[in-house]
Write a structure and sequence with these properties.
The chain has 344 residues and is α/β, with parallel strands linked by helices. The protein contains 10 helices and 10 strands. It has a single domain, classed as Divalent-metal-dependent TIM barrel enzymes (TIM Barrel). Helix 2 (64-76) links the parallel strand 2 (49-51) and strand 3 (80-85). Helix 3 runs parallel beside helix 5 (150-169).
Length: 344
């Protein structure tokens, strides 16, 4: 049965939480009560699911005992953990690629133990000094994947396919996050990468907010949506207010709610549904009270955007979709079940 506004799984990112506590202890090494307190804060905002973004806690570097403690902390707050997002661990990094690949495999194993549905990977690398020095890191210049380098492109295809096969053995989806200046930095390149990997459980995380926020010319967001949504199996959603004056070369963007930013998510979700998208949605935001904005964004999706009734016309995706059993918001957490929808 297709998801509706009441049953669509909407996770919240843990990006707003600091990775180091007031006492200097890294959250990775914190007592489970610290994790539980964070999860409880998310639950009090109305969330029932969380994306374990690994800049907060790295599930791939936790022991089995600690993973069980992490799962118990989330469960005690009434949260499921359907997704992990691996951040800035490019498997084609010239220096750290093999190390990042091994870490990515460990993260897949951890995701399976946690009962996740999807793991999101990207090709973005650690922040440069330029990015670290800016108020908004996307204003700075980051690393750039070499355009036209067949060897590096082939390495990306091979290593991401390797992760996709491992994920398939574990019953997981792999979603590739779109980020600027990587082989996932344009619609055409991202689609080509997925097509060359050619595994049904590997799709796109069309986080087009990552591209809309750039202080330079960008692809029109509608073109990004039209080209990438047929391959989407997970979706980080966020929005930005954007201004351009091409005559003077002015390009600027700042974080906004889903409702008020440049991207019309009502229109984007029409395209998504017509493309067969039934993946988990993850709300993100940078700046200010980011968690409250995430809660506002989740409410906007449920009350204004997502279909209220089932029976709507759902297209056919080119990749496998989710396996999570639909449940009403506020209902007891359910274990994910194998219910993948095959591509044509």
């Amino acid at each position: 049965m297709p998801y509706t506004a009441a049953t669509w799984p909407i996770a919240v990112s843990v990006l707003p939480f600091p990775s180091v506590g007031p006492d200097g202890t890294h959250v990775q090494d914190a007592d489970p009560s610290h994790w539980q307190a964070a999860f409880q804060e998310l639950a009090e905002l109305g969330f029932t699911a969380v994306d374990l973004t690994d800049c907060w806690v790295r599930p791939g570097d936790l022991s089995p005992r600690r993973l069980d403690e992490l799962a118990a902390a989330a469960s005690s707050a009434g949260l499921t953990t359907p997704a992990i997002s691996v951040i800035r661990r490019s498997v084609i990094d010239p220096d750290l690629g093999l190390e990042n690949l091994a870490y990515s495999h460990r993260t897949l194993e951890a995701a399976a133990r946690l009962g996740c549905e999807v793991v999101s990977f990207g090709l973005h690398r650690a922040m440069t000094d330029s990015q670290k020095s800016e108020l908004w890191f996307w204003v700075g210049r980051g690393h750039v994947d070499p355009v036209g380098d067949r060897e590096t492109w082939a390495k990306a295809v091979d290593r991401l396919r390797e992760l996709g096969r491992h994920a398939g053995e574990l019953g997981l989806l792999v979603s590739l996050e779109m980020v600027e200046d990587t082989y996932l930095g344009t619609a055409d390149s991202a689609v080509r990468l997925v097509e060359e990997i050619d595994l049904p459980n590997v799709g796109l995380n069309p986080d087009i907010g990552n591209l809309v926020r750039l202080h330079r010319p960008i692809e029109p967001w509608r073109e990004l949506v039209a080209k990438t949504l047929p391959y989407a199996n997970y979706w980080h959603v966020k929005n930005y207010s954007r201004d351009e004056d091409r005559r003077t070369g002015l390009f600027t963007a700042v974080p906004a709610t889903l409702e008020t930013g440049l991207i019309d998510y009502r229109e984007a979700f029409r395209v998504a549904i017509a493309s067969g998208f039934q993946g988990i949605i993850c709300v993100e935001h940078y700046g200010g009270d980011a968690l409250s904005v995430c809660a506002t964004n989740a409410s906007y999706l449920r009350t204004r955007v997502l279909p209220k009734r089932d029976g709507y016309a759902l297209g056919r995706s080119r990749v496998l979709q989710g396996r999570q059993a639909p449940r009403s918001v506020g209902a007891p957490a359910a274990t994910a079940v194998a219910a993948g929808r095959e591509r044509p």
